[in-house]
């Protein structure tokens, strides 16, 4: 098969491209960075250097493909804190839709997110609902699988500074860069040995490895499925208390705790650090929607997938390596 992958050599796209190449498919990876061309070619794929804002480029690259994997890049809140995530999602997804129609592609796998089933009560993640809605405007003969992964393991790196006892927003730019996933805002000022957010403690959370996401996307791209569906992807479900213990043990702090604070405390902390009110409200609501199997998980628990292979203890080894290198 001829398969097009967006997302350059990111956490998901790189292992996805590698797997598809190893299976004998002709893979083209889209990247906006010319410096990535050599790395893309090194894994056996073809590089297409251009912007997803350029519909003509996308349409030309998509033409002749059997399947296309699409994703939205991290929004640049660090450059524009007042960015409207919903409108940005609408704009970029509309580019994909136009390119897909112009190219004649009939199979699309789109990276969405848990929470994309609604635009109410899920805060920032409502932009995924918008993106799915725009993608559904494609003609009925275009098959679409919406991949809805849960919280990424690597979002837990956002807690590293506070686990070290180094305070709040040393990694604030990193926070902005990963706002498109959930579980991001546990960087509140606290005592050494605590993770703090407006969810936590006994709240049960599903988490996923990008490797398991890539494997699931690969299955969908080469499948014979026709129609429209959403597929959730998860690796393991744990309480926040269990997560804290696993990460803490890995870094030599088995006493590490995950403490839940109020929504007001969360919002006040974000505003204290000059985050725009709309964005602060979205993040606070997004986190709150995860408590006690809340709104974020209501459709997930109706469609629980088979768990992936990579577990929290596997990720904890990576977490510890990064932790000890700083």
Say which CATH homologous superfamily of the largest domain is assigned.
NAD(P)-binding Rossmann-like Domain
Global shape: globular
Residue share in helix? 25-40%
Radius of gyration: 20 Å
CATH topology of the largest domain: Rossmann fold
CATH class of the largest domain: Alpha Beta
Number of domains: 2
Percent of residues in β-strands: 15-25%
- The class by helix and strand makeup works out as alpha/beta
Strands, total number: 12
Oligomerization:
single chain
Mean pLDDT, as a whole number?
90
Low-confidence stretches: 167-191
Description:
There is one protein chain. The protein is α/β, with parallel strands linked by helices and 326 residues long. The chain has 2 domains: 2-151 and 206-235, Rossmann fold (3-Layer(aba) Sandwich); 154-204 and 237-297 and 311-325, UDP-galactose 4-epimerase, domain 1 (Alpha-Beta Complex). 38% of the residues lie in helices and 17% in strands. It has helices at residues 13-22, 37-42, 55-62, 85-103, 126-135, 160-163, 172-177, 210-222, 240-250, 263-272, 277-288, 312-325, and strands at residues 2-5, 26-31, 46-49, 67-70, 107-111, 143-149, 151-152, 194-197, 204-208, 228-233, 236-239, 257-260. Strands 3-2-1-4-5-6-10 form a 7-stranded parallel β-sheet. Helix 1 links the parallel strand 1 and strand 2 (26-31). It starts with a strand and ends with a helix. 47% of the residues are buried. Residues 167-191 have low confidence and may be disordered.
């Amino acid at each position: 098969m001829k398969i097009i992958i967006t997302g350059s050599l990111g956490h998901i796209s790189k292992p996805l491209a590698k797997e598809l190449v190893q299976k004998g498919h002709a893979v083209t990876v889209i990247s906006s960075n010319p410096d990535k061309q050599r790395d893309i070619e090194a894994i056996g794929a073809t590089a297409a250097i251009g912007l997803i804002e350029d519909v003509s480029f996308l349409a030309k690259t998509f033409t002749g493909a059997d399947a296309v994997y699409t994703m939205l890049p991290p929004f640049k809140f660090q450059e524009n804190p007042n960015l409207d995530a919903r409108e940005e999602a609408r704009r970029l997804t509309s580019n994909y839709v136009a390119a897909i129609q112009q190219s004649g592609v009939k199979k699309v796998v789109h990276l969405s997110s848990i929470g994309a089933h609604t635009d109410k009560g899920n805060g920032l993640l409502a932009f995924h609902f918008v993106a799915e809605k725009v993608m559904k405007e494609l003609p009925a003969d275009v098959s679409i699988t919406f991949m809805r992964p849960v919280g990424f393991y690597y979002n837990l790196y956002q807690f590293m500074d506070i686990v070290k006892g180094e305070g709040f927003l040393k990694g604030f730019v990193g926070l902005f860069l990963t706002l498109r996933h959930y579980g991001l805002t546990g960087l509140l000022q606290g005592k050494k040995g605590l993770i703090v957010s407006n969810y936590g403690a006994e709240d049960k959370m599903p988490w996923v490895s990008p490797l398991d996401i890539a494997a699931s996307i690969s299955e969908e791209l080469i499948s014979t499925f026709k129609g429209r569906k959403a597929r959730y992807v998860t690796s393991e479900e744990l309480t926040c208390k269990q997560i804290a213990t696993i990460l803490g043990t890995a870094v030599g702090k088995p006493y590490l705790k995950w403490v839940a604070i109020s929504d007001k405390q969360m919002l006040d902390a974000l505003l204290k650090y000059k985050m725009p009110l709309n964005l602060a409200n979205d993040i606070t609501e997004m986190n709150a929607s995860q408590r006690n199997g809340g709104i974020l998980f209501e459709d997930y628990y109706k469609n629980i997938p088979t768990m992936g292979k990579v577990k929290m203890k596997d990720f904890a080894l990576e977490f510890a390596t990064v932790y000890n290198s700083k």
